[in-house]
Amino acid sequence: MMHHTLSRRKVLASIAAGTLTYLLAYPVALTRPLPQASPVVHLITVESVISPVSAEYIIKSLERAEEENANCLVVELDTPGGLLESTRQITKSFLAAKIPVIIYVAPSGARAASAGVYISYAAHLAAMAPSTNIGAATPVNLGGGSPDSSSTLSHKITNDAVAQIKALAAKRGRNAEWAEKAVREAVSITETEALNLNVINYISPSLDSLLIQIDGREVEVASGKVTLATRNARVVRREMNLRYRLLEKISNPNVAFILMTLGFWGLFFELSHPGAVFPGVVGALFLILGFFALQTLPVNYAGLLLILLALVMFILEVKVVSYGMLTIGGVISMVIGSLMLFEQPPDNFGPLLQVSLSVILTMVGLTATFFILVFSLAVRAQTRHVTTGREGLVQEIGIAATKIEPEGNVKIHGEIWRAFGDDAIKKGEQVRVVAVEGLRLKVVKATETARRDI
After folding, report:
1. Annotated catalytic residue 411
2. pTM above 0.85, yes or no
3. I need a labelling partner for 328 at 20 to 30 A (CA). Which of 344, 365, 403, 420 fits?
4. Is 251 a catalytic residue?
């Protein structure tokens, strides 16, 4: 009995010791770090003019990368320039970024011109692929090219642009002297020159090599200094969604102008021919797309009103005898309105926001031809001789089925009609209908002269 009692005590003691050991070790198990997931790098591509569309795309992509705790955001850039206001929005978002932003001018043959210089200078790090270039950041005035040096306004714009890019250069430790030359003298350099002049940080033949080069680099973001860990990072490419792609395609002034013109055609044809449906649907779709594009473009409403005035003149041309004066006025009004349709902001870097002259002349010619043709057909249809119903019998030729003196029967189109006339008509003679009175036809002899008059 004593033996069994001792054995039970040993078992209980062993269990107690094991439980104590586990409890002591449990907090350590809870604080043991979990295996770390591989870092994530977000990648976007911008291959267009810097506009409100591309600015929104870049800024939203940066915000998403921050929300998902990405290690950094890489922007593959290839741009000829763009609007300064959109550029300012991008640079402000880069300066306030919580994660590093890396500009990568790629692929080979790409450029970071005009607005692209400011975006590159605002990024925490900048790299270029071989055979690329950067520079030519001089503002473009309303007439194209660099501003007139004698203009006070151009001095203000240029000095403001210089101050902005020098501030970015000081913030990121880049070459401020070259940046000023890029604005004042429109200089442009290759990737090798850019690296030697401290305009960029790296030359990278590929994205993989870039991620290896920047790995371990310490940069300062809005919240403090961070160290990049990109060597084995997982790259997540964030493509433009359908809305951005659609806006980017149709925000071209030429495309927006063509869409609006075709939309007016379709709606006008539907209103003048109710029930056609297809022209109205297509016209409404084109107009919606056109106005959708206008939200990203600086529209001059005086130009838009001139285009509408031209359409009214084309319509009146057929209704009013103007001997072509309304058509000429419509063409002139549409050409001037088209040239004025988009305002060119003075603080622009890169291509002008205007409709191509060849596109204007083509669409004006087609519009004038379209309206003249449509209304000519409509007028011709209204003045055409009626061929159906009782009215359609007037001027028709028939045969006297009986003697008409003054009444009788005639045969027209295989039908027998009651007829009367002022002159006696023999049976079998040809007759011509001159009027319809109730269910009777007034006829005359269809002489050779009468036949020629038909």
Report:
1. no
2. no
3. 344
4. no
